[in-house]
Known about the structure:
Chains A, B: Pathway: Metabolic intermediate biosynthesis; chorismate biosynthesis; chorismate from D-erythrose 4-phosphate and phosphoenolpyruvate: step 2/7. 2 copies of one chain form a homodimer. Chain A is of the alpha/beta class.
Amino acid sequence: MGAAGSTADHKNQAEGAGDTPQQVRIALDERSYCIHIGAALLPALARQQLPAGTAALIVSNTTVAPLYGAQLAQALALHYPQVHTVTLPDGEEHKTWQSLNLIFDALLTHGCDRKVVLYALGGGVIGDMTGFAAACYMRGVDFVQVPTTLLAQVDSSVGGKTAINHPLGKNMVGAFHQPRLVVCDLSTLDTLPARELAAGLAEVIKYGPIADMELFAWLEQNLDALLARQQRALAHAVRRSCEIKAQVVGADEREAGLRAILNFGHTFGHAIEAGMGYGVWLHGEGVAAGMVMAAELSRRLGLVDAAFVQRLRTLIERAGLPVRAPVLDAADNAGRYLQLMRVDKKAEGGEIRFVLIDGPGRAVVRAAPDALVREVIDTCCAG
Amino acid sequence: MGAAGSTADHKNQAEGAGDTPQQVRIALDERSYCIHIGAALLPALARQQLPAGTAALIVSNTTVAPLYGAQLAQALALHYPQVHTVTLPDGEEHKTWQSLNLIFDALLTHGCDRKVVLYALGGGVIGDMTGFAAACYMRGVDFVQVPTTLLAQVDSSVGGKTAINHPLGKNMVGAFHQPRLVVCDLSTLDTLPARELAAGLAEVIKYGPIADMELFAWLEQNLDALLARQQRALAHAVRRSCEIKAQVVGADEREAGLRAILNFGHTFGHAIEAGMGYGVWLHGEGVAAGMVMAAELSRRLGLVDAAFVQRLRTLIERAGLPVRAPVLDAADNAGRYLQLMRVDKKAEGGEIRFVLIDGPGRAVVRAAPDALVREVIDTCCAG
């Protein structure tokens, strides 16, 4: 699994974790960092090994800042001479240059130099924008992820992918920039709306079909505990997701090949998000329906059987996630999906590359005939 | 001298170069690339080792595109299935997000994927913006520099620094992203306005005091040939500048320390550019007056003698460049300079770091007492 590994103790976890903080170490040479997972981590943050700096800038949004902004600022004030906060508008539709520029405005207005440390307090949008701002400000400063959504904890806190959207495509402008530290405070999930918790579960479920059917079976058994936000179950789901992602990313930091399997469900999912207008479907919801589509395409290519597709479909549905894809264009629905997927950055030379399941627990990236893809779209949108 | 080196043959150069293309190789492991220097290189471009790609996008401006755009497009059409062009407004004042976004618009409108290659055809502004667009588009694509100003040929084509300006500071938003190839066609300098040729000479002169007094003496002897745009002299000036910069950058790619010496004259220079409003003084003009100020500061700190300052001043003046700094604020001129320099990204923790000459041919980076800096500003603005 290349350079990535985990220092977490599996035995310990199986017996009684969730009560004490756990760590996943992302091993990327000089860009290595730790993910801390546990309850009530924010108030005790100053006890962690925080990156040194002349100032900290907390980047949050109008939803999360009122909930946890003061707590984080208080903890950081013990460590940094200056702590500033910038609050961005909330939502995927604000993952734009305009919002990003508010971060630069704050940094420059406060006279922050290269030794500033940015703290991303929020979900994936805040994490992506803060990471990209950190990648670009004075050509690169440190940043720390404090993800407050399940999606961000299991997905965007590992991998170093940062970006903003462009009117013509999602995540089209960005950079690879690793955080110095990730703090997953499970207590912040208490205030997460149920719909967003479910959207986060979509990315947890994803790791089963592509890499770990043991996790998948565990999810089938523990889904109710996760939906009830039991911290022991959440800790396991977050940790295993981060570990699997770390293994994949560690083997392929710059997304040359293997890493693409993490996009299972995302090619169709991005088309759904873009086609419906960003923000109408949550990212995880698009991925959920997209996974069903990708599984169905895998079945039609003879890679998995119908029972597997049904098993995936059932778990996704139990999580409260959509299994049916939306109609994007009444006149030529499949054509619209294909058009949107061609502009996706996984389409190289106009050919759409799908992440398919090549037997449960194993993913493969390949193209598929347009006719077959159209059939899948017709089937999955019909119900 | 770290990883950087040059494959150019000094003896050969001294005897008869300028007639045949020369190469400087920038050795940066897997990001290594070549700088080709010679006359009439553009028409023969397809004979070079160009990076592979599904499409090329030429990024140029309204001044340069009409002069060389068709020539470059024609040459690239022999190598790429598709060649597109985007023409940006000309000038430092357009080194903004708005212009950068025109590049992203073009890339997405043409459906360009990760295998697109961007070609920067123009001066430093075009190079910086194209490089930054390449760094960010889909989190990183290849780009080639085709610098058409002396400044860009001797300075911005080596080092991988890319950026745009922010209303509150120059080059505040950017990335380190190395080109795959740099083509310095000396013939494109024929159309360069005299004022911009002189501005480029400022950066050539810079390499003398900080690293190579032999080059400085050569410049004293060959300045008239350079001003007359004799290609043999230009080839030598461009090559030596690239070689020296390559040595410095190779030893310090990410600007941790040594690389800062390349900013000789830039701390004062940036203050001049920002204080006058971007575009009023050319970058090289700010650097020219800034070098006199930094040399004067070095003298007052006892690092060099008055004769050295005068020798530098004379060469700068002969090149047609300003040796006197502008008054930025009639009420508190020195205060205004200090304020502008503190926001510069070389100011860490509020302390301004100056590149000073520690004896001819050797640079040092250090702070200086405000009172002394004020004296220098007063002297150099007075004349």
